[in-house]
């Protein structure tokens, strides 16, 4: 049995009792944003108020505006090359440009920004890793969003009663 099959099995065992179903999102680099877009459309009962590209732009703009909140985490994840003439702030700006204008995969920094932009509570589930909860301060507000993808992105359909939470799933 492959690692992916084992992960899928663990994932399904975790999701089934929660009443979630998996909606596959194409793993094209935009999957994190597309999954959030999908969840927002489920919440609104129609189309999402934001397309995936708008979500990318929102995340980048928020990170720029709150750079001091993100820069330490950016620096810990992105070694600064000693031979580069660019300052850490310039490298962070380059990163933000990449977030908004390429198909670079999103991660914890971008999800952190989006929790605040959207004012949404986000839950990230994984078959093999501990669940991650972001935006707890928005837990009682309206509207769920869920998603995260490592080698594959998945969103879930939420059962009734989780209207203030976005749920994301991570699979290896």
TrEMBL record:
Annotated OTU domain ranges read 20-172
Q: Do you know which PROSITE patterns this protein is assigned to?
A: OTU
Protein name from the UniProt record: OTU domain-containing protein
A Pfam family cross-referenced in the UniProt record is OTU
Q: Which GO terms describe its biological process?
A: protein deubiquitination
User: InterPro entries in the record, alphabetically?
Assistant: OTU_dom, Papain-like_cys_pep_sf, Peptidase_C85-like
Transmembrane segment boundaries = none
Record-level Gene Ontology MF annotations: cysteine-type deubiquitinase activity
Q: Which family does it belong to?
A: Belongs to the peptidase C85 family.
């Amino acid at each position: 049995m492959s690692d992916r099959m084992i992960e899928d099995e663990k994932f399904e065992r975790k999701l089934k009792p929660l009443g979630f179903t998996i909606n596959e999102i194409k793993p094209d680099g935009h999957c994190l944003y597309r999954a959030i877009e999908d969840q927002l459309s489920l919440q609104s009962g129609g189309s999402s108020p934001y397309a995936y590209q708008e979500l990318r732009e929102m995340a980048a703009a928020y990170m720029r505006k709150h750079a001091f909140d993100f820069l330490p985490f950016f620096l810990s994840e992105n070694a600064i090359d000693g031979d580069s003439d660019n300052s850490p702030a310039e490298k962070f700006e380059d990163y933000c440009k990449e977030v908004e204008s390429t198909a670079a995969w999103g991660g914890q920094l971008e999800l952190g920004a989006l929790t605040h932009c959207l004012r949404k509570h986000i839950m990230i589930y994984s078959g093999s890793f501990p669940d991650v909860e972001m935006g707890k301060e928005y837990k009682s507000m309206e509207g769920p969003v869920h998603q995260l993808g490592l080698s594959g992105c998945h969103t879930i359909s939420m059962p009734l009663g989780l209207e203030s939470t976005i749920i994301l799933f991570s699979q290896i």
